[in-house]
Amino acid sequence: MQTVQMKRQRKTNRGAIRGSARDRKAAMWNVYLREKKSLLRKHRGEYAWIVGEKIVGVYSDRAVLCREMLNRGMGGKGIIVKIEDEEAPTWDIPSPEIEQEFAGRLRQ
Question: What is the DSSP-derived secondary structure letter of residue 60?
Answer without folding.
Answer: S
